[in-house]
What we know:
Elements: E1 5-11, H1 15-25, E2 33-38, E3 51-56, H2 62-75, E4 80-83, H3 95-99, E5 107-112, H4 120-137, E6 149-152, H5 168-176, E7 183-188, H6 202-217
Parallel strand pairs: 1-2, 1-4, 2-3, 5-7
Antiparallel strand pairs: 4-6, 5-6
Amino acid sequence: MKPSTAILIPSFNSNLKLSALITEIREYASEPIIIVDDGSKVPIAIGGEDVEVIRNDLNMGKGFSLRRGFDFARKIGYSHVVTMDSDHQHAPSELPLFLGANLSNDFVLGYREKDQAMPPHRKFSNGVTSSIISKIIKFNVHDSQCGFRRYYLESLRGIDFSENGFQFESEVLIKVIKADTAVEQVKISTIYDKNNKSYIKHVSDTVKFIRLILRSLVGK
Length: 220
């Protein structure tokens, strides 16, 4: 498989924002775009060159959609994917930070400053989860909850993932990063739209994260 990169965007009910996002992406990157429609009420219909849409019949969660996107990208010959959220909280202007990074890296992880732009509850949860995960994997992860990342798909092969929701991005770090894993971390903008509807369920997702950590401590 020759090195090639696609941009992967999981999306749920973000139809109105996707066209604008893709237009902005094209100002900074020409790589093919894969959109995973996670069972949106109105199916995503996006046209354009090098834009592929695959659809989950039901809303399965971000982790499930990312894994489906990984499998799709791998099958059609991509070696890497850059993942972005569909809600404009990741700046397309920062795509070159990921696309231009050394292709030998297993991960390129975006991280945000925990400044005034980040809501207090997100600062707290991000700080706690990043600290716990860093201790488990013995590597200092600056921002375990950031979904702006680049993955080397081969580094994920053969690993059994069980998280279908937002916890998947933490599960990847716990199960894949070892002493010899090549990881680069790049600083990105901290962007939060107060009017944007979040699908994170804080109580239930916190419980799921605790369960993930407990499973990792007893051998995953």
